[in-house]
Amino acid sequence: MNLAKKITGLGAVALLSIGLAACGSDEANSDATVGESVDYKITGIDPGAGIMEATERAIEDYELDDWSVISSSGSAMTAALQKAYDKEEPIIVTGWNPHWKFAKFDLKYLDDPKGSYGGAEEIHTIARNGLKDDLPEAYEILSNFSWTEDDMGEVMLAIQDGAKPEDAAQDWVDNNGDKIAEWTNGVDKVNGDKIKLAYVAWDSEIASHNVMKIVLEDMGYDVTLTQVEAGPMWSAVADGSADATLAAWLPVTHATYVEKFDGQFEDLGMSMEGVKIGLVVPTYMDIDSIEDLKE
Q1: Any idea where the ABC-type glycine betaine transport system substrate-binding domain is (predicted)?
Q2: What is the pLDDT of residues 218-246, one digit of tens each?
Q3: What is the pLDDT of residues 92-139, one digit of tens each?
Q4: 141 and 60, same structural domain?
C-alpha cells in the first residue's frame, strides 16, 4: 500500500471538517455505515509519528481498502474531536494515553484483535552515547525519572485549562517534592552545565519535558528544550545534537527509529508503563472493534 496515497495532507483536514459538519447527528443515527458517516477517513496526527505507521498497518491488516488516515497534528486532531463531540457527530481518531482528552471526553479504544497497534506501550528515556561520562549528574536524574499517568495528567489538564506549560509544571514540582527527591537523591548540584532535551509536540511530552526542565534547573543545569517531530528527535539524540529525550514510546510507536538508530543511543529505562495507542471513538458511537469498519 502506498503511504503517500493513504495519508493525505492538511487540506484534507478542512474537507473532513466540512464533511463532518454536514453529516450531523441525524445522519450518524441513520442507516449509514460508520465508514459512510466519516467518509472513510481517520483523523491522524503528524505524518512521521509511529502511530500513523501503525494505523497504515491496521488499514492493511483489516483490509480496509476504502479507508485512509489524514495527517495533521496533535492539536488539529483534538480540535476535530472537540468539534465532532460537541455535536455528537461520528469521528475516528488516532489516540494514545496518557492524554487529557480521556479526562475531558467519554472515549473508547476500538478493539484490535489482529494486534496492529501491539499491546501496552512504555515511555522510555533515551540519551546520546557518552552522556554518562559528560554529564553524570544529569544522567543519573534522567535514569531515575519515573512517574504515573495520574502525575502526567495533572500537568496536561492544567495546560489544557489555560496554564502555561512552565507554570503547570512548576505547580506539579512544588506539590510533589517527594517524587522529585527520588529522582535527585544523592546527586550533586552542578554550576550551569548545559543540557539539551528534544521532544515531540504531544501533550504528554510537553508535560514531562517541562517538569524535567525545572528539576534539572533546580540542580544547576542550563536547560534547552527543543520541539521537533519524532524522526528528528531520534536523529538528534543519535547524532548528539540533543542530549536526551523523555519521549521514546516503545516497543511499537517508535520501533522504526529504534531499528534505524540501533547502537547510536542509550536506553535509560522506562518512565511510565501501561500506556497505549490505537483508534479512538466517542462512546456514543455504536462500534467496538476495528473489524467493524469493514461493514
Answers
A1: 31-174, 193-294
A2: 999 999 999 999 999 999 999 999 999 99
A3: 999 988 888 888 899 999 999 999 998 788 999 999 999 999 999 999
A4: no
Q: With beta carbons less than 8 A apart as the criterion, state whether 7 and 56 touch.
A: yes
**Using DSSP, how many helices (H) and how many strands (E) does the chain show?**
14, 10
Whole-angstrom distance, CA of residue 283 vs CA of residue 279: 12
Domain that holds residue 47: 3-119+277-294
Burial of 46 (0-12, 13-18, 19+ CB in 10 A): buried
Does residue 263 contact residue 240 with C-beta atoms inside 8 Å? no
38 exposure class (CB count in 10 Å sphere: 0-12, 13-18, 19+): buried
- The reply to whether 110 and 75 lie within a common domain is yes
Across residues 60-84, what is the average pLDDT?
93
| pLDDT attached to residue 30 | 56
Q: What is the CATH number of the domain that holds 57?
A: 3.40.190.100
| 283 and 264 within one domain | no
Is residue 16's pLDDT more than 50? Answer: no
How far apart are alpha carbons 285 and 5 in whole angstroms? 27
- The residues, any chain, with a CB within 8 Å of residue 150's CB and separated by 6 or more, are none
Whether residues 164 and 189 share a domain: the answer is yes
Give CA–CA dist 23/90, Å, rounded: 9
281 lies in the same domain as 226? no
